[in-house]
Design brief:
Helices cover 18% and strands 31% of the residues. It is of the alpha+beta class. The longest helix is centred in the C-terminal third of the chain and has 13 residues, at 93-105.
Length: 140
């Protein structure tokens, strides 16, 4: 999955009132997905916890007008992320994080995104293992 107009590079701060950036987030979304490099991981879904932080350009805040059409909808983002996780097998948590970042950055108002992907059931003595990335869209 790729979006040709989105350059994935480290991002600036997530929220910034002076720059007109709103912080939209999804916390602790747990999905079952096929992920992992080992053969036994290719036959069974694993629980993965996702955390998303989006820096959304809000422009003129009065233009929100209490209308969902004027904001980045966390329900829509969550459903798109679930679809990425349902799209076959992914070897690496790093790859899944990048694919999720691309989906989030495809929304015109999203300036940057932080994505954390955690596999929950890898080690008995660890709550989770995973990766966190930040990416930004320089077009916004």
């Amino acid at each position: 999955m790729s979006t040709p107009n989105v350059r994935l590079v480290p991002s600036p701060a997530i929220a910034d009132a002076r720059a007109g950036i709103r912080h939209v987030f999804v916390r602790d979304l747990v999905v079952d997905t096929f992920i992992g490099v080992y053969d036994f991981e290719k036959d069974n879904k694993q629980r993965v916890r996702l955390n998303l932080d989006l820096a959304v350009y809000e422009g003129d805040v009065s233009s929100v007008a209490d209308d969902i059409q004027n904001v980045v909808c966390y329900e829509k983002i969550s459903n798109e992320v679930r679809a990425v996780c349902d799209n076959g097998h992914t070897n690496l948590v790093e790859t899944l994080a990048e694919e999720i970042a691309i989906v989030c950055l495809s929304h015109a108002q999203v300036r940057s995104v932080r994505v954390r992907v955690e596999k929950l059931d890898v080690f008995a003595d660890a709550a989770s293992v995973g990766v966190e990335i930040e990416r930004f869209n320089p077009e916004v």
